[in-house]
Design goal:
By secondary structure, the chain is α/β, with parallel strands linked by helices. 41% of the residues lie in helices and 16% in strands. The chain has a six-stranded parallel β-sheet with strand order 3-2-1-4-5-6, with helices on both faces. Bound molecules: adenosine-5'-triphosphate and magnesium ion.
């Protein structure tokens, strides 16, 4: 294994926006695989009630099943306390020594990186890929990166992906209002949500 992509997120629920970004990164950076890592207790999402980790991990499993390059990890959901990306990347480096790591994010999340715990160290541990996302112009990213050292900026690459204005927030709202979520996320995930009565 030479190059591994990781995609972190709440995945509440996982949708085609996540999957398109991950597949685009896999192809562009010739990743041997992409591992989806649902967050256990995200420090920045404490404002709302997050669906149980077990449900979110199962939905992630269902979503990646049709892609031989995709896998999931329970690294964060098994770890007690808040999920910090730096700890996850550190653990991944121990699990895959000598492997180049790529952390895949959307254009919104990469902006948050700059506010994350130990950002300097994080940028020295793995590459970051910022997938375009409707509503989050990459110009903002360039501006925010202005204060960061050049060798660290090189660790961040932006990547154009087909624009999907899909968000988990919108999907949860749709379910709550009885509106369709079909074609926004993989069918097995849709069935799981409806069968388990999630987001109602
Ligand atoms: P929520 O609305 O609950 O915040 P979300 O749709 O933003 O959910 P997250 O689990 O927060 O999904 O995001 C995980 C990662 O996927 C983040 O890096 C985010 O930027 C990225 N991402 C989410 N949706 C898209 C999308 N439509 N296009 C590109 N990247 C996306
Ligand atoms: Mg989000």
């Amino acid at each position: 294994m030479h190059r591994i992509g990781m995609m972190g997120g709440t995945f509440d629920p996982i949708h085609y926006g996540h999957l398109v970004a991950a597949e685009g990164a896999r192809h562009r950076f010739q990743l041997d695989k992409v591992i989806f890592i649902p967050a256990g207790h995200p420090p920045h999402k404490s404002g709302r009630q997050i669906t149980g980790a077990h449900h979110r991990w199962i939905m992630t499993e269902l979503a990646v099943a049709s892609n031989a390059y995709f896998d999931t990890s329970t690294l964060e959901v098994d770890r007690p306390g808040y999920s910090y990306t730096i700890d996850t990347v550190g653990e991944m480096r121990r699990l895959y020594p000598g492997t180049e790591l790529f952390f895949i994010t959307g254009a919104d999340a990469v902006l948050e990186i700059l506010g994350w715990k130990q950002v300097d160290e994080l940028l020295s541990m793995c590459h970051f890929i910022a997938a375009t996302r409707p509503g989050y112009p990459l110009g903002n990213l360039k501006r925010r990166l202005a204060g960061i050292a050049a060798d660290q900026i090189r660790q961040i690459t932006s990547m154009e992906v087909p624009a999907l204005a899909i968000s988990s927030t919108d999907i949860r709202r749709r379910v709550g209002e009885g509106r369709p979520i079909k074609y926004l996320l993989p069918e097995p995930v849709e069935s799981y949500i409806l069968n388990r009565g999630l987001y109602r």
